[in-house]
Structure formats: structure tokens, C-alpha cells
Amino acid sequence: MESLVGKLHRCSINTATLGHRDPLPVVVDQIAQAGFGGIAPWRREVEESHIPTLARQIREAGLKVTGYCRSTYIPAINRATFRANIEDNKKALHDAASLNAACFVMVVGGVPEGTTDINGAREQLAEGIAELLPVARSVGVPMALEPLHPVYAANRSVLNTISQAMALCNLVDPSNSGSLGIAIDVYHCWWDPDFFKSTMCAGQANRILAYHVCDWLYGTQDVLLDRGMMGDGVIDLRNMRHAVEDAGYTGLIEVEIFSKNNWWKRDVSEVLSICAERLESVC
Amino acid sequence: MESLVGKLHRCSINTATLGHRDPLPVVVDQIAQAGFGGIAPWRREVEESHIPTLARQIREAGLKVTGYCRSTYIPAINRATFRANIEDNKKALHDAASLNAACFVMVVGGVPEGTTDINGAREQLAEGIAELLPVARSVGVPMALEPLHPVYAANRSVLNTISQAMALCNLVDPSNSGSLGIAIDVYHCWWDPDFFKSTMCAGQANRILAYHVCDWLYGTQDVLLDRGMMGDGVIDLRNMRHAVEDAGYTGLIEVEIFSKNNWWKRDVSEVLSICAERLESVC
Questions:
Q1: H-type alpha helices, B61-212
Q2: pLDDT of B148-167, one tens digit each?
Q3: Is A155–B218 a contact, with Cβ atoms under 8 angstroms apart?
Q4: Which of the 8 DSSP states describes residue B155?
Q5: Does the interface ipTM go beyond 0.90?
Q6: What whole-number distance in Å separates Cα of residue B129 and Cα of residue B136?
Q7: For an interface test with B, which of A118, A160, A161, A190 has the most B Cβ atoms less than 10 Å from its Cβ?
Q8: For A116, which of B115, B193, B235 is closest by C-beta distance?
Q9: For position A217, what pLDDT does the model report?
Q10: What is the DSSP letter of A72?
Q11: Smallest Cα–Cα separation from B51: which of B231, A146, B59?
Q12: How far are the Cα atoms of A236, B111, B153 from residue B115, in angstroms, in the given order?
């Protein structure tokens, strides 16, 4: 496995890491000037921009777009909402293409509120992804199904492990068209006893489209907004990247840290500098 | 699947559900008088009692002990602490026998603090369980490995799914001696895409030693102490009990709710009465 020392061009910053404090055009320059090779922006900041202008700025700054975050949740309490969710994702796929994103990150949604139907939600998910697949193919941006930590199964994602995401890929896209794969985020998957086995399967099928790093703090205060900086927690980051790259992944390593009470309060330049240090020393 | 209406003798109360507010002898009477058939006490309340007297009170109240909570965490930062943890669990197994407990509930412990060695922690776990197995056999109380929700992988349990727990059972106790099995708690397992398959495997091997219910609230405030009452959350309780009983489990259904800001503040009689109602109506 290649060391990341001096290899920041192999690393990307998800804009959530910086707390969405500055406008996106400012953030693009901050990330590029810090020496990183990629950026992963969010829809809420992209959709308020003039997208072609933004795309040109990112390209001219020398940044790759490692992922466009993220899908509208798919499972819904009724058919009309399900339809609206799918149409919303089609529109976002077109924007992902305008940005030349390496993938559209699919955070798929939880159990429709007020129900106990996780199995039904998973069925809706399969149906929705199947409908989106030809759109992804036609715009040329693959969808990256991101299994989320099981702590989010109720309200954010009924897709919770790499092997479950791979089963969905194989169900909906058996021909492995190149338009459907997975995003692996260490925060969501570090605990999984099947991590190494399922990552190898995903890589052998060329399905790994993104790799996200941060850390899980031993005494996590908030499972949504208290992610740790790489090296500050319990995740065996080196072994996990080894597995992902051994499986054939050659894309960028993206830092995604939601940290309301710590990193989002620090200066952007300090956060970027520590991200760089830790990518080199512990990832 | 048999309805639980009028079948409270098939149901048990884990004393954590009542918030550990009254002394255990009082709680035993409260649970028995409410009509339940079982109790699951905790070591901290048992160890401050005269255990033979307590055991007699429980027996005379007509209650089964559905589980003795819980093991000392096993993985440790050094060998001396590991040894102390094992010896502590041996002592607790003897107390479980004095209580005539149906099982000793094993919450196995997380990643040793300050390390990133989840794999090493899992190896320590296998070694520890192997050493405890002959003790469990000699005192006549089986150990129930309880897979905990992956949100606790850092600091409470590196054992996180039913299939992982079953793999450990089969590794350490290949002859299926009757002294090692699993506890299934819906809070920990409801999200698992492999729940139905792995539960069937566990049941066919006669490894299911306990079944715990509560609910996962859609907007959970605290993953440790904000469990919901059955029926108030997203868990498909009826399908899960169906799977567990279809797999051959014939033991009691135990209610275990940690709820600092809600149920632990209500009158014990109200809590027991609502537990009974919900066991009958949604479990």
C-alpha cells in the first residue's frame, strides 16, 4: 500500500468537513490551495450556485469531484412521495454530470416514519435504484450506494452493510454496467466483522466508487455530529485502506468529518492542515 | 405464533426496565404481583444481597430467572486485566447458578481504550469464552452471548451480529454442549438484513437462550438510555418474535428498556402495566 506522505493529490475533502461556513466558491479555493486533489460538495451548496460556473472553477482549480452528496431519501410513506423522491434524484444526477462528479452518493433513507416496515423500505429502495439506473447511465455518473452505520437504520438509511449494498447492486444491475457501485465510509463500516471479506468482493466486481475516512471516537457524544479526526478514535484506518486498495480501488481518499462542537469551530486552514497531517500519518 | 394475551407468565421483566430505583426484594414482589412469569436481575443489585435468600424469594414468588445481567467485559489493554476479567466472570457464573438463572448474559466488551485493535479484541473474546465454558458447564448455567448494536462496538461490545455470535459459539463450542448460546435483543438486531436467516440457524442449533424486547424510537435521543416501549418505535416486533419462535425458542419474552428521561421517571406500577398491555398488543 502506497504511503500518502506527499500525496495530497490522492486525497479529497468533503465540504461537510469544513462545516459549510463559507460559500462554496471560497471553499473550492481553500481546498485547492491546501494542496488536495479533490472535493466532494453537497447539493444544498451546489444548487444555490450557477453550476456551469462552479464546475469550471473546480476544474480550473485542478480538483476532481470525488462525489456529489447526496441523494434524496427514497422510501416513502405513500406512492406520490416515492415518485417525487425518484424525480428529485434524476434531477440531481444531471447536476452531478454537470459537475463531472466521479459518483452520485446515495444515502438511501430510513423506515418511513410511523411504520415498522423496514423490509418494505428495502423493497422500495430496490425499485427506486432500478428506475434511476438508466438515468445514471445516460448522464455518465455512476450511483454509489453508501451503506450507513446501523445506528441510522430508522431515520437515514435502511442500507447498512457492504454486503447488503453489494446484494442490491447485483440484484438491480446484474450485468455490472459500470453505473452502480458502492461508497465505503470507515465510520459506517469499521465495526463490521465481514468488512474485509465484503470489501474484497466489492473490489473484485469493480464496484468500489468512493472511500471516505474520519474516525469513531471512543466516547462519541453524538452519532451524527461528533465524528473524529483520523487518528483520534478506534478505527484501524491503515488496515481498512489496505483492504480497499487491495481490492482494486484506485480513487481518491475523501475526508468527511461532521463535528459540530470541535472541528466545525476551528479555523478552516487549521482543519485542512490537520487533515493533511493525519492522512499522511495514520491513514 | 401464540398470542401473548393472557400469557404474562410467558413474559419476564429485566429489572433495568424499572430504573433500579427500589431494592431488589421490593422489585421481585412488584414484578410477581403484576403477573409476570420471570425476572432478570443485575449483578450490582444481586451482589449486595444475601444471594440464597434472594433466590428463595424469587422462587417462592413463582418467578423464573430469565437471565443474570451481565458479564464483566473481557478484552483488556493488558494480560493482567484480561485475567482479572475472566476470574470475575467465573465468580458471577457461580452466582448465576445460585439464582437458578436460565443463562448468564454476556455483554462482552469493546475495543480496549486507546487502541484500534478490534480484531485483537475479538480474539481475546474467543480465548476468554473458551476458558469460561467449562465453568459454565460445571455450574449448570449456559452463557448467552448477546450481540450488541454496532453503535456500541467501540466501548461495550465487539460482538455485533447474530451470525458473528453464532460463529463464535461454533468456534469455541463445536460439540454444542448446551453451555453456550446467544441472547437476541431486538434493539440490537432489528436493523440486520440477515436477522431472519441467522436467527433460523441459531434456533436450529438450539442456541437461542433468551429473547429481549423493547423498541427503537424513530428520533432516538440517546442510544444508551432512550430505548422505547414496545409499539412506540420502528421495530417489527411481531415478525421478529415469529422468527425467533419459528426457529424453536420456547423461553420467556423479556422486556428490557433503558429509558432515563421517560420510563424510569414513571411509577413502577404504570410501567409494569403498560409493559403488559404492549406485550399483549404488539409483541
A1: 79-98, 118-139, 162-172, 186-189, 195-204
A2: 999 999 999 999 999 999 99
A3: yes
A4: T
A5: yes
A6: 10
A7: A118
A8: B235
A9: 98
A10: P
A11: B59
A12: 9, 7, 13
CB contacts of B192 in chain A (<8 Å) are 150, 160
Contact criterion met (CB < 8 Å) for B236 and A160: no
C-alpha distances in angstroms, B29 versus B17, B34, B48?
15, 8, 18
Write out residues in chain A with pLDDT < 70, as ranges.
Answer: none
Residues ≥6 apart with Cβ < 8 Å to A175? none
Per-residue burial over B160-183, b = 16 or more CB atoms within 10 Å of its CB, e = otherwise: bbbbbbbebbeebbeeeeebbbbb
Q: Which residue has the cell 400469557?
A: B7
What gap in Å lies between CA A137 and CA A139, rounded to an integer? 6
Q: Which strands sit side by side in the sheet containing A104-106, from one edge to the other? A: A64-65, A38-40, A11-14, A253-255, A208-213, A180-185, A143-145, A104-106, A68-69
Interchain pair A234, B154: CB under 8 A: yes
Name residue B33's beta-bridge partners: none
Burial class, A73, CB count within 10 angstroms (exposed 0-12 / middle 13-18 / buried 19+): buried
Residue B40's beta-bridge partner residues? Answer: B14
* DSSP H or E segment with residue A164: helix A162-172
